[in-house]
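Could you please consider the sequence and fold following this short note?
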Amino acid sequence: MAANTTTRCVLLLFLVGVAARAASGVTDGLLANGNFEQGPARSQLNGSRVMSPHAIPSWEVSGFVEYIESGQQLNDMILPVPEGARAVRLGNNASIRQKLAGLTRRTYYSITFCAARTCAQAEKVRVSVAPDSGVLPIQTVYTSSGWDCYSWAFKAKHTTAWLSIDDPDAEDDPACGPLIDSVAIKALHHPPHTKTDSVLKNGDFEEGPYIFPNFPWGVLVPPITEDENSPLPEWTIMSDTKVLKFVDAQHFKVPQGKYAVELVAGRETALVQEVRTTPGRSYKMSFAVGDAGNGCQGSLVVEAYASQGKVQVPYESQGTGGHKRAELEFAAVDKVTRVVFQSMNYLMKPDGTLCGPVLDDISLVALPKKHRRLFL
């Protein structure tokens, strides 16, 4: 009997270990050779063009792919690299891809990568993990370096999958095409309610895409039109082409915790979450509005609305950090209530890059029935 018990315990420990290894099959952070610092042999290059599909370790390339070194000149333009010394450029019909192994089925993952344009014309990047795919415009209006970091999410259907990044457009000028560097992955966990009595989830924004610790400009989160699986769990970014910026306390002033969001696109972007509510019940939403300490000066205004309630929160920013608390009370009229936040102003830093108010620490609680007020 004791032997059987011992055998069962050993088997249980073994199964727990297997499950733990399976759950941790993908490590958050840079993909294998995700910064392209390991490059092709000289014999596999024609100038800067990569001539062999497997020339870049851990990656498979096709089409016109160039291996770029920092400071390299292209048509009188010096190409910078944000981290390290090397990156890749995607020309006509070009793609790079890497096999992702150890995924957990039905788990959401976020891909973070940095990109820059090489020409004045509009450029785009398509990111795919079958069957999910999204096309992200490379706008380069959010940092002064010419590089922005983007996030894109997918839901794993299998334990292995190919991540593909390609240029979906046929460039008029073959020397044009986006630069790609620093590709990372992070498993997304749909968080519980921020506070025990809050019906809103991830209101502290502690769950979101991977941010590179050495990059001081945050990560852009695309709208639902470009990525139906949000890299910001529980939240949806509503816009045609504009984004929201996910920022960290290491490089920005955030009101609470390690992360927050910056509303950088004015009225063109709305941050939305749908929450379960009881019709006729009154609720109070509280949140923090401030500036990220990144030189964004001026009159910041955040508008929040839910059901028939609405409030505008002004904040005079000196660009050095700080925040204020705000509240909104409303009565629910449906079983599901849409909570919406928008920046009412367009702001620009002295270097010409877009900026806006920081939003953080959002909670939504039901008021005691004796305090209930119905808004008609």
About this structure: Residues 5-24 have pLDDT under 50 and may be disordered.
